[in-house]
Amino acid sequence: MVLLLFIGCEKPTHFTQQSLEEVFMNFSQEEQTFESILKKHKGKKILIDVWASWCKDCLVGLPDLLKLQSEAPEVVYVFLSLDKTVPRWKRAIEHYQIKGDHYFMMQGNHGEFAKFINLWWIPRYMVVDEKGEIILFKATKITDKKIINALKK
Predict the structure, then answer these.
(1) Which of 48, 53, 49 is nearest to 92 (CA)?
(2) CA gyration radius, the chain
(3) β-strand 134-139 against 124-128: which pairing, if any?
(4) CB of 125 within 8 A of CB of 136?
(5) pLDDT of 63-79, one tens digit each?
(6) What pTM does this model have?
(7) Any idea of the CA torsion for 94, 100, 52, 8, to the nearest 10 degrees?
(8) What are the helix and strand counts (H, E) for the chain?
(9) How many CB atoms lie within 10 A of CB 134?
(10) Which residues contact residue 132 at a Cβ distance below 8 angstroms, ignoring those fewer than 6 apart?
């Protein structure tokens, strides 16, 4: 029993094959697997932001996110939206002028990606290193020092 609890607390360093195969929609409404999104940015550090336009905490954190983007422009910012509709998602990106690589989570919080990261709260931040390894599995505030530390690694 203790061994099972220990394993359950371990933070994964790689995405599961099922989560990599999940299909997302880009801003041009083309479908892409999560694996292709990561490959697009291979060799760069990636901050993943799971958010939605209806999420108050997500919107409250936007000024701090914009500040981080100006302080760490070498980082790729990938936004995965849990919005209910594509038009609402697109309007929010344009309204709040959110710069980065944007994707709509077509399976919402019921897809394999959401299951893999045990998504129950947004915003949710993750950091992936240049080799494609997850170096920060979970943060829920953009001001979390773990994000800065992961980006500096």
Answers:
(1) 53
(2) 15
(3) antiparallel
(4) yes
(5) 999 999 999 999 999 99
(6) 0.91
(7) 180
(8) 8, 7
(9) 19
(10) 14, 38, 42
**pLDDT tens profile 102-153:** 999 999 999 999 999 999 999 999 999 999 999 999 999 999 999 999 999 8
Band (6; pLDDT cuts 50, 70, 90): very low
Q: Which of 59, 67, 93 is nearest to 79 (CA)?
A: 93
Fold of 15-152: Glutaredoxin (3.40.30)
24 near 112, Cβ under 8 Å? no
Domain locations along the chain? 15-152
For 9, 47, 59, 76, 141, the CA distances from 55, given in Å and listed in that order, are 27, 19, 6, 22, 13
